[in-house]
């Protein structure tokens, strides 16, 4: 490939930004067991510190998402200042309207108006927090749904959802937007109130241009063509961002690129081809993962490297050759262009990008050298659970 092209690829990789989630630094597990690790952050400040270390090692993770109230603090402006001092910023604010007893039958879709009011008040409180932290994204996921036919009215629940979304939307400031996540099941097993991108999209269209769809890669039925959803939403200007992670079965929240790096590449290819890697496209690339068994900071570093590798391969697709093959109806040729790019070993290229960014070409080795794991094992006793089973 021509030197100028490689320079363009490298500059795109240097500019890439990936947001890590605070909850991935806390203890997590399954409904069967949370295996506590040593050196886990005891509060939001220490989670921010771990996220800052991930940024220091990779150079491309300059923000951390918060989950409220898991990351509750007295003074959010102070937490933002702490993040700034540590070299990062606070990113998306994720309200939590699923962990209270009140939410047994749902939050904003609950049949009881008093519960709906409480849930909406929390969403609005989260916008206040955004004002204090300087965050621009309200990231919404609702556990709402029903387990049995007849349990509640599917239609009435959509009305309640629309009402709450619109009240939260109206509260957003001019530089803030709302991302609406969907998931086909869990915790509800019969019907989820936002089960798919179409439902999320329809609500976002009604709300207005500052409401967009959030695609969590773990939230689809097996076999779903996620890159198609990405392409479609991009075309409509309705793709707000991602929760990257990987899954073998359901919402596994494993490291992105671990289960299916080829799918991640196909998603990034749609992004690259739409010009949506550019900062101006305003697509939020966020991770949503839980490291139940593996140590958390290096797992996050590895995840970021996986996203970079998929992105590099997508950037290496020869767009001209691909377009020509497509024009000529050359099925095999077009597929070969894509596969050739995918089969590149992009690790040396990324090592150069890291050197340009002033970080170690091997961030995992660099992590080991920091002695961070040993230090926090001593410093932090009784780390915080990410939220579940806390
Ligand atoms: C839940 O399945 C969603 O992915 C949400 O984004 C959720 O808030 C996050 O995973 C933390 O549980
Ligand atoms: Zn998610
Ligand atoms: Zn999820
Ligand atoms: Zn997930």
What does this structure look like?
Helices cover 46% and strands 12% of the residues. The protein is globular. It has one domain (15-315, 346-379): TIM Barrel (Alpha-Beta Barrel), CATH 3.20.20.150. The model has no long low-confidence stretch (mean pLDDT 97). Strand 2, helix 3 (76-86) and strand 3 form a beta-alpha-beta unit. The chain has 390 residues and is an alpha/beta fold. Helix 7 (226-235) runs parallel beside helix 8. The structure holds D-allose and zinc ion (3 copies).
Distinct small molecules bound, one entry per kind: D-allose, zinc ion
- What is the overall shape? globular
Largest sheet: 5 strands, parallel
Q: What is the number of E strands?
A: 10
Task: Tell me the Rg in angstroms.
Answer: 21 Å
Number of helices: 14
């Amino acid at each position: 490939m021509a030197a100028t092209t490689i320079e363009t690829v490298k500059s795109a990789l240097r500019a890439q930004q990936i947001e890590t989630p605070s909850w991935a630094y806390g203890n997590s597990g399954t409904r069967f067991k949370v295996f506590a690790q040593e050196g886990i952050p005891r509060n939001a400040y220490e989670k921010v510190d771990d996220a800052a270390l991930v940024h220091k090692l990779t150079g491309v993770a300059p923000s951390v998402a918060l989950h409220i109230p898991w990351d509750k603090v007295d003074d959010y402006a102070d937490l933002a200042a702490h993040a700034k001092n540590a070299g990062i910023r606070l990113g998306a604010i994720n309200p939590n309207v699923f962990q209270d007893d009140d939410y047994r039958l749902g939050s904003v879709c609950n049949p009881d108006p008093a519960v709906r009011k409480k849930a909406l008040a929390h969403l609005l409180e989260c916008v206040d927090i955004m004002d204090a932290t300087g965050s621009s994204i309200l990231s919404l996921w609702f556990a709402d749904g029903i387990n049995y036919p007849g349990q509640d009215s599917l239609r009435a629940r959509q009305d309640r959802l629309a009402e709450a979304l619109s009240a939260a939307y109206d509260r957003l400031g001019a530089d803030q937007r709302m991302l609406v996540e969907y998931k086909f099941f869990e915790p509800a097993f019969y019907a989820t109130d936002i089960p798919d991108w179409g439902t999320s999209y329809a609500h976002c269209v009604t709300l207005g241009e500052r409401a967009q769809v959030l695609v969590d890669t773990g939230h689809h039925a097996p076999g779903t063509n996620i890159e198609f959803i990405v392409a479609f939403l991009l075309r409509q200007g309705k793709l707000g961002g991602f929760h990257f992670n990987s899954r073998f079965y359901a919402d596994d929240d494993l490291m992105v690129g671990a289960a299916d790096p080829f799918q991640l590449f196909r998603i990034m290819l749609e992004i690259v081809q739409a010009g949506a890697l550019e900062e101006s496209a305003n697509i939020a690339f966020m991770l949503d993962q839980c490291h139940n068994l593996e140590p958390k900071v290096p797992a996050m570093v590895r995840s970021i490297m996986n996203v970079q590798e998929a992105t590099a391969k997508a950037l290496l697709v020869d767009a001209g050759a691909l377009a020509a093959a497509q024009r000529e109806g050359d099925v095999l040729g077009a597929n070969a262009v894509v596969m050739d790019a995918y089969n590149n070993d992009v690790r040396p290229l990324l090592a150069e990008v890291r050197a340009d960014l002033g970080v170690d070409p091997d961030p995992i080795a660099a992590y080991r050298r920091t002695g961070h794991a040993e230090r926090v094992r001593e410093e932090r006793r009784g780390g915080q659970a990410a939220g579940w089973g806390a």
